[in-house]
Design a protein that fits this description.
Helix content is about 25%, strand content about 30%. Strands 2, 3, 4, 5, 6, 7 and 8 form a seven-stranded mixed beta sheet that branches. Strands 1-9 form a two-stranded antiparallel sheet. It is rod-shaped, with a radius of gyration of 36 Å. The N and C termini lie far apart (about 135 Å).
Amino acid sequence: MTVGPPPGSQDTLNRLDHRDPLVFDTHELGRRPGSLRRVSRTLPAPEGLGIEDVIGVPGKSEIALELRMESVVEGVLVTGTAEAKVEGECVRCLEPVEDDLEVDFQELYYYPESDDRGRGRATGGDEDLDEDSDDETYRLEGDFFDLQPVLRDAVVLALPLQPVCQDDCLGLCVECGARLSDDPSHHHDAADPRWAALQGLSAAPGDEGDGIKNSDTREGLAENQEK
């Protein structure tokens, strides 16, 4: 009698959700090296496909995929192209940015047993295996593979870190926040900062004269009293 893995075991946790549109089945491809299969699929984008708070593919928007799956000795070589619309915000003027994105990618998904043998020979045993190298290895789970990590890496690497609405965007006015590209002659009149500190010290016309005159009168009265 064969008993399956208990709930919560590692085998159960590693199973892919076959209903996920980014999970693909290679069963029809077979394991004969050289076998080839092409797949075209339009599917909703997963959440967070891009650079957070900068630019990315809107969640649930359409992604068009063209995949070429080829059986090789070690596993299945997946080569593909993805097309989608991306949205973001200009880093200079904060206006919305929209663009069409097309990315190419290629990844080898190892058969579980082929991957174990290859890594065992390379490292001299599982006990010497670096955990980081295991994270970078994509493997088939049964006949299925998950394209999402590969697609996510390809999209993020293709996106600009500082998107702009146009190459010569002038940004915003630091005084009032107006978009300078809409009015390149926009400016604010400002006094020479070298004289700004003296503006509050200037007296009204005639004040200085009156002050001198009153001072002279007081001094004259004091002299007469002394005499």
